[in-house]
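Q: What residues go here?
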């Protein structure tokens, strides 16, 4: 009877962090032969994690130790990210100081107001190291969703400018091939019926809606559906005559009260002598920024 020889296998791993990468050295023993292998695993910097959170539209707070005095668990420039669910990336020292900073970071996420915190570690937190730490916490908010109905000249220009100014843009248009020249704009493009899309859009108190379609009745139909949903901003393009007609229809059909009608931005945008599609888009964007910067 032939007995197969068993292999002797052993792996020893040593790791060293250098230049934001982990160097892993493994030693394998097989049939009394040692093989040494080295590989590098690139680590994400904390700023790359911040970019990922922004791209994924996750609210968070960025915490950085700006100054320390005496003995402290971490030194200045130590960084930590805290998400709205309490997940952390990085550290500002562990223990009571870190627990306290996490709690304060979650308050900052809600308030959207940065804070500078100063701690006497022994007196304030009963930490025996006894030094002092200053921690700055800044909110990192998800992008505001902007839904643009209409991918014509104004809609396209507004999408381009809005993306560059930090909005999370979706453009909706039912026309075939209308998005052929949108490839360089980093926005979502939906080529479907307007009414169908309205039923699937998630609306909340931060949703921005701009109506700039090619058809007046489309504008009115979208407005009728959108005005009853939760939103931060709702605006529709149109001349003074068109706006007057729309207001009358909304009132006559008892869709909205006169007070609710006046809350709709129409004619849309900040009033100035805009003529080209790009200039009109700038006037709309100015209004969007004004509303966004007053949100809480």
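A:
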């Amino acid at each position: 009877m032939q007995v197969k020889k068993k292999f002797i296998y052993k792996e020893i791993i040593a790791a060293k962090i250098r230049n934001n990468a982990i160097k892993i050295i493994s030693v394998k023993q097989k049939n009394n032969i040692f093989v040494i292998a080295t590989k590098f695993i690139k680590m994400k910097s904390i700023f790359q994690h911040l970019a990922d959170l922004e791209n994924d539209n996750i609210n968070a707070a960025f915490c950085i130790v700006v100054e320390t005095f005496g003995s402290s668990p971490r030194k200045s420039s130590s960084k930590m990210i805290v998400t709205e669910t309490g997940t952390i990336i990085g550290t500002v020292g562990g223990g009571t100081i870190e627990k306290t900073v996490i709690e304060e970071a979650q308050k900052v996420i809600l308030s959207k107001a940065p804070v500078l915190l100063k701690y006497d570690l022994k007196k304030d937190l009963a930490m025996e190291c006894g030094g002092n730490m200053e921690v700055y916490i800044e909110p990192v908010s998800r992008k505001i969703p902007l839904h643009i109905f209409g991918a014509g000249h104004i809609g396209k220009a507004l999408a381009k400018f809005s993306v560059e100014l930090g909005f999370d843009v979706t453009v909706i248009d039912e026309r075939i091939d209308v998005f052929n020249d949108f490839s360089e704009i980093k926005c979502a493009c939906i080529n479907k019926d307007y009414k169908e899309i309205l039923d699937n859009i998630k609306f909340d108190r931060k949703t921005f809606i701009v109506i700039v379609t090619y058809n007046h009745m489309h504008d009115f139909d979208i407005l009728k559906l959108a005005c009853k949903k939760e939103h931060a901003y709702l605006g529709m393009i149109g001349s003074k005559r068109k706006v007057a007609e729309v207001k009358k229809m909304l009132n006559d059909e008892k869709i909205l009260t006169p007070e609710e009608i006046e809350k709709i931005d129409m004619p849309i945008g900040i009033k100035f002598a805009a003529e080209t599609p790009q200039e009109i888009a700038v006037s709309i964007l100015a209004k969007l920024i004004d509303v966004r910067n007053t949100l809480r």
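A: Context that may help when evaluating the design: The chain has three domains: 12-42, 46-140, 144-292. The first helix runs from residue 46 to 55.
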